[in-house]
Structure formats: structure tokens, C-alpha cells
Amino acid sequence: MDDILRALKPLPPEGHGPIKDRVTEFVRERIASGALPAGACLPSTRKLAALWGLRAPTVQTGLEPLTREGLLVRTVGSGTRVRDPRKRLASVGVYEYADWSKIPVAAYGRNLNALLAERLARDDMRMRLWIDPRPRAALREPWPEVVEACRRGDVQGLLLPDGFPPGAKWFDQLGVPVVAAGVVAGANRVCHDHLSFLDLGFGELARMGCRVVAWITTLPTRSKDTERRHLSSVAFAHARDTAARLGLSLAGDCVMAPEERINPVAMSPERFGYERFGELWRRRPRPDGLLVYDDVVARGVITAVLDARVRVPNDLKIVAHRNREIDLLCPFPATFIESSATEAAEALIRQLIGLFNREPAASVVLPFRLERRQMC
Predict the structure, then answer these.
(1) Every domain of the chain and the residues it spans
(2) pLDDT tens column, 153-211
(3) How far apart are CA 348 and CA 198, in angstroms?
(4) Distance between CA 244 and CA 250 in Å, rounded?
(5) Which of 3, 11, 20, 115 could form a disulfide with 62 if both were Cys (CB 3.0 to 4.6 A apart)?
(6) Is the pTM higher than 0.90?
(7) Is 40 strand, coil or helix?
(8) Comparing 2-82 with 91-191+343-367, is the CATH topology the same?
(9) ∠ at Cα 84 (27, 119), nearest 5°?
């Protein structure tokens, strides 16, 4: 332990940024340099706090990113150790708090799970799937089954394809690297570039000569989830700014969005798209361009367009989202902006392998791609 204490003293002098970040970077550098070898047991948080003249909570917060990255392993009763980087990632847990198999409109989630299983099997990695059956209010607390599996080493890393449950902090304490899908960029996250979707969509409508446009979207106008609330706020402002920059008129009543995140059990996003388009098309003046997100909402919009006998593209030009791996029947000319579940699965696994191999945590932002005026 004396060698470990010498390797950890002193903490570099104060520089820019929060103190917790200095702790993170200092311990990461000590591990990378070999001063803290594989298997080394760190002093307790209290001892480190006394060593560096800091508060124990600050030290705890500074070490948490290294646990998420897989550089440190916390074991109840044994303390915090430096992980042996030579160990191969062979067993991956997948944690979800929504059972996609029971949600008819969750084709993307089911497809993503299948792609994750296929990709892990191809690299000879075992996959263990957990679907948390607890009510939403209980998800903030650790699920003993997952905690115990990580403690025993049954899984060496964890993927969260439907993101972190709102308010749940216990994933930082599992002692294995964790990577989650997200709606906004952040460390250990994989997300789509929603602002680029708006740039592509409104840019394409402007290119086609539209002047008055509308946007039907699943992004809620308010949300209890901090990340979704942030994304919605940024996206709605970006939509207004982008439309104005392109010379498009996007009135407030032409942005059709739910007040809260759509609950697919209470109301299908497909029905939401159908009803919102009907409401939009009864208004005067009508838009000559329409942007739609996501692909499930787009299915409802397509049905409503056919029911209303709208002549596309003469009366209305449509740009809509779709997932590359999921069929979306559209019997009239439309432009699509695609995302890919295959790319998402690959990014999640690649990120997890990187963390397991002691690479710094990063954010992965996946692109949308424009496919012009296709009949499908």
C-alpha cells in the first residue's frame, strides 16, 4: 500500500475545470503510466480525500468515470482495484426497462436487440438480456439481479439500448463499463444527430421550392426526463432558426408535437401521426412542405395523406424519417432521411469494447442520411 500511496501523491496543482476532473485525469494517467499496475487496490475514498486535502464526495465523484470506463473495478468488501487490461471482453449484459417484445410499434427496439445479439455472437461474446419488470418509480434503485451478476463477473460490461432509466445513478457503481443509447451526446453514450435531421429535412424542403412548411414530430414539448427536455428545447429552437435561415415559414401552430412523451400503450405514434396530419390539412393556409419524425409517425401520416387524397408532390412535398432496416410502405414520391439500427448496434458494442480496453470515454453521434424522392 505504501507504493500505491506514493504513486498517488501529490495531486497535481489546481488548474482549469472542476476538482473532480483533476482527480479523474490524475488517476487515469497513473494507470496508463503503470504507476498503478493491474490488480492494485486503491486506498479508501476517505484516505484519498485526506491524502489530497479534498472532500470525500469529490473524490468519489472523480473516480466514478473511471469505473464506468472499466479502468477501475469496485467490489463490495474488497475495495476498488485497477482492472487487468489483458482480460478479453467475453460476456455482455443488456439491460432494458421497456419490454419491446410487448409493444407492437417498437420494431426498432426489437431489431436493435436482434442486431446486438448477432454482432456479439459473431465475436464469440455471450449476451445476457435483462428486462426490468419493476414500475418506473422503482428504477432509480439498483436491481439486485444485475448488481450481483456484475459483482460475480458473470458480465464484464453492460449495454443499455433504451438508455438510462430517468434518475437512475446506480449504474456508476457496478464496477463494469456501461454504454447507453441516449437522446443527447455525453460520455459513454451513443445518440443520433437530431439537429442534422432538421438541417437535412428543412434544407430539402427549401431545395424543392417549398415556402410554408410544417413539422410533425414525436419530440415532446415538455418532459420529466432532463435529457429529453433538453433535446426538445434545443431542437424546437433549432427548427425555427433553420427554417428562418432558409426562407421558410414555420408557424408555431405548424409544429405538431405531443405535450409529453408518447406512451405507445395509451396511444400509438402511428395514430398520433394520422390525427395530427388530419388536423394540419384542415387548416388554412395549408403548408406546401412537411417534415415528419419518426418512422412510426410517418406510417400514420402516409395513411392520412392517402385518406385525404392529397396529391404528392403537387400539393405537398414530404420529407420523412425511416429506419434503413425496417420496411416503410409509401406509395407516392417522398424523400427519406434514414437512420440505421445496424450502425447503432455496432457503435454501442465498439464503444463498450473500447471502454473495456481502457480507452477514454467518448460520445458517439450517429448521422442521418438523405435518400431523395423514393417510391417504396
Answers:
(1) 2-82, 91-191+343-367, 193-339+370-374
(2) 899 999 999 999 988 999 988 989 999 998 888 888 999 999 999 999 999 999 999 99
(3) 24
(4) 8
(5) 20
(6) no
(7) coil
(8) no
(9) 110
